[in-house]
Design brief:
Blueprint lengths: L22 H7 L4 E3 L7 H9 L3 E3 L14 H4 L3 H10 L3 H4 L6 H22 L2
Parallel strand pairs: 1-2
């Protein structure tokens, strides 16, 4: 997501695949100063990759970690922009219920609704 809460990259995975499996590919696509992610991305490899690129990792540690890692709690609050975006996209029945059988069709539906959501967001700004 950009700083405005709009998507910059979209990757589909199987329902049983963990989000963290796509972290490396997503980090290669877009340069960033700050990477904000949820606990699903809390792994030493991901945090090291982010910091090696010169960015700040704002990822809360899982509660079962032996060594808790500090993170910027105030900056993490900006993650709600991504959550609000997905909430808006999932208001479209086709996306929320995953009617499409093919991944390419489902991705197209998400991209279409992302464009509509972005257009509405930009037109609402004064």
């Amino acid at each position: 997501m950009s700083g405005l809460g709009l998507p910059v990259e979209l990757t589909l995975t199987a329902g049983q695949a963990a989000d963290v499996t796509q972290a490396e590919a997503l980090l290669e696509c877009q340069p960033a100063e700050v990477v904000i992610a949820d606990k699903g991305y809390d792994s030493d490899a991901v945090v090291e990759r982010i910091e090696a690129s010169g960015a700040e990792a704002v990822i809360p540690p899982r509660s079962n970690r032996k060594r808790q890692r500090p993170y910027d709690r105030e900056r993490y609050k900006d993650r709600n922009l991504a959550e609000r975006f997905w909430s808006k996209v999932k208001q479209h029945r086709r996306v929320a219920t995953r009617y499409d059988k093919l991944a390419v069709a489902y991705r197209a539906a998400i991209v279409l609704h992302a464009v509509v959501t972005r257009t509405k967001a930009l037109s609402d700004t004064p």
